[in-house]
Predict the 3D structure of the following.
Amino acid sequence: MLRLEIILITAGLALLFAAVLAIAIMRWRKKQQVLQLEANMRLLKRCLKIDDLLSVLADRYIPLSTKMMLVDYVIASMEKVKSLPNAFPLTEKHEEYVGLRSELMRAEQATKNEKVAVQAEFVRVQGALRVLLTLVKAFSANRMIDKASAKQQMSMIRYGYQLAHCDLLVKEAQEDLDLEKNARALEKYRTALSEMESVSFIPESNRVINTLKNRIQMVEGILFKKKQNVDQG
């Protein structure tokens, strides 16, 4: 009789343990599902941010290597986020992203190349490049790219920022010249030159710097000739 009671008690404890373990496993799985959902939501948010960045930034202002990294990241993430409610605006662009990646692999830059021409455009580009810097730092911290590559990309992004401001200043200077406000145009060209010389370690800056120097020389010539005419008058 005692042996039977022991067997029953043991069986009861085993059932209780199994029930507790089953509940614990269910709770763990539910927690993992919640954590995975939250991770996928963060991933979708980041991908949507990248999609927005690529729509704002002309290729002139974003390094090719950075653009390729972002495109690869979005393509790789689509499978994970496709079941989320807000994912369709992104996932419907899958073929578009695959085509873009193919073009980038051939070293083609297939999106818009317009220069910044007004202050509002510069503000948008400025904000996008700041977000891009944050993304590259995060990718480096998560070891998705090595530190050397991240450093190079961040330097090129900062160059893109200076180039965008330079493009705006050059556009405004040309408008000043059209209005014969030569001194104001000269000031803007000189500001643009100073900013581009701050990133002269980037080889791509050389052509822009030389162009600015030529324009400064031209405007200085106009102003000098005008001064001579006034002095002689």
The CA atoms of residues 32 and 38 lie 10 Å apart. The mean pLDDT is 88.
